[in-house]
Amino acid sequence: MKAPTIRGGTIFIVLVTLLVFAILVKLGLWQLERATEKQALEQTLELRQAEAPLTYSQLLALGKTESLTGYRLAVTASPVDAPIILLDNQVYEGRVGYLAYQVMRVEENGPRLLVELGFITGGPDRRQLPHLDRLTAPIFLEGRVYQKSTNPLSEQLLAETGNPMRIQNLNLPELAQRLQFALAPAILQPQVIPGNDLPHPWQPIPLSAQKHQGYAIQWFSMAGAFLLLMIYLLILKRKNKNFKDK
Q1: β-strand partners of 76
Q2: Which residues of 105-116 are buried (b: 16+ CB within 10 A; e: fewer)?
Q3: DSSP secondary-structure letter at 106?
Q4: What domain of life does the native source organism fall in (predicted)?
C-alpha cells in the first residue's frame, strides 16, 4: 500500500522540478532577448549621435513615425511666459533632487520645446523649491534629444501649482494641456548653456545590455542550482526508501 504513495510523491517532485526549472530558464532567455534589443538600441543611439544635428522641422516630422531619443538637434530658441518645470524624485551621483526644464519657442506657430536646464539638488524642506536662473533671451542651443519612457504604474503628471511647477512624471501630453499650448514630442538636453553649470544626467536606456545579460546568468544559475538540489533530494529519497525496504 505504501509503494503507490512513494511513487506518487516522486512523480509530484519531478513535475514540480520540471515546471520551476522551465520557468527559470524561460526568464533567463527573456533577459537575453532584452539584452539583444538593448544592444540594437545602443547601436542606434551611437549612429544618431554621429549624424548631423536635425532642424526643428525635421525633428517634428520624425516624431510622427519613430522614437526620437539620441538624435541631435540645433535650434535658436526664445523663452516664453511659462513656469519652470521641476521633475521630482530624481537621483544623480547619490543626491536627490529635480530635473529642471524651461519652455522655449523655436517656431512662431509651432509646438513649444522643453529644454533641460539640468539637475538641481533638493533641500531638506520639500515645501521650499530650489531657485533657478532661467533663460531670458533668444539663444542658440545644440544637444541631444530624448523621450522619457512611461511608467505603467505611475504616468500621470500630478502637477502642483506655482512657479516653479513641480511634477511627478514627465507626461508631455498632460503638461501641454496644463500649459495650454502644444509641446514637441521630445526634450532637448543642450551640450552647453551659457552661464549654467548644472549637470545633465544622460541615461537613455534604463538598463544596459550588460545588465540584462547579468540577470540572465543569474536566472540560469538559479535554474541549475535548483535542478541539482532536486536531483539530490530525489537520490536521497530513493536511498531512504531502499534502506526502509531492507
Answers
A1: 140
A2: bbeeeebbbbbb
A3: S
A4: Bacteria
Q: Helices 2-50 & 209-245, crossing angle to 10 degrees?
A: 170
Q: pLDDT, tens digit, for every residue of 202-236? A: 877 766 778 888 999 999 999 999 889 888 888 88
Residue, of 22 and 36, whose pLDDT is higher: 22
pLDDT at 6: 52
Residue with cell 535554474: 223
3-class DSSP state for residue 189?
strand
For residue range 29-71, what is the model confidence (pLDDT) as tens digits? 999 888 888 888 888 888 998 899 999 999 999 999 898 999 9
Q: CA torsion, points 7, 8, 10, 16, in degrees to nearest 10?
A: 160
Q: Which helix (H) or strand (E) holds 24?
A: helix 2-50
> What are the φ/ψ torsions at residue 41 (nearest 5 degrees)?
-65, -40
Q: Are 212 and 42 in contact (CB under 8 A)?
A: no
> Whole-angstrom Cα distance, residue 33 to residue 5?
42
pTM of the complete model: 0.74
Which amino acid makes up residue 111? Answer: P
Residue type, 156: Q
| Backbone torsions φ then ψ of 12, nearest 5 degrees | -60, -45
Residue appearing with cell numbers 522551465: 22
| Cα→Cα distances 149→60, 152, 178, Å | 18, 9, 20
List Cβ neighbours of 197 (8 Å cut-off, separation of 6 or more): none
Beta strands in the chain (DSSP E): 72-79, 85-92, 95-105, 112-121, 139-146, 165-167, 183-190
Could you tell me which of 15, 122, 123, 144 has the C-alpha nearest to residue 73?
144
